[in-house]
Amino acid sequence: MGVSFITATHEIADSSCRGGRVVSAPVTIEDGCWIGANVTILPGVTVGAGSVIAAGAVVVSTLAPNGLYGGVPARLIRELP
Question: Is 28 tagged catalytic?
Answer without folding.
Answer: no
